[in-house]
Design the sequence.
């Protein structure tokens, strides 16, 4: 009688390995203050591209104005990069130097 091992192609059983999935790293999209971009434009951007309510957009815009930067949202890398590109392109089309950057969330 022959003993079958898991590596034997004639074996009727399969070994399934569970892989541990990890959450993707998240990135903060930051709006940076400048002396030329109007506050109204920043509020509009926050509403249009980040789906912020008028009150939330106003709060974030004031943080940008007073503290130099404000967090527009936290996303996966691809989404964050897309939002940075979209907002930057819109700002340039309108003639504003608004800077938008994505940076990794601090590790917990």
Sequence:
């Amino acid at each position: 009688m022959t003993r079958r091992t898991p590596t034997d192609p004639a074996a009727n059983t399969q070994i399934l390995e569970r892989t541990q999935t990890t959450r993707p790293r998240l990135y903060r999209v930051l709006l940076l203050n400048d002396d030329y971009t109007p506050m109204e434009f920043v509020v509009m951007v926050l509403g249009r591209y980040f789906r912020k309510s008028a009150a939330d957009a106003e709060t974030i815009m004031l943080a940008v104005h007073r503290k130099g930067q404000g967090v527009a949202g936290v996303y996966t890398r691809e989404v964050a990069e897309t939002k940075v590109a979209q907002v930057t392109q819109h700002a340039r089309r309108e003639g504003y130097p608004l800077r938008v950057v994505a940076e990794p969330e601090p590790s917990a």
Summary: Helices lie at 39-50, 54-67, 77-94. The chain has a mean pLDDT of 91.
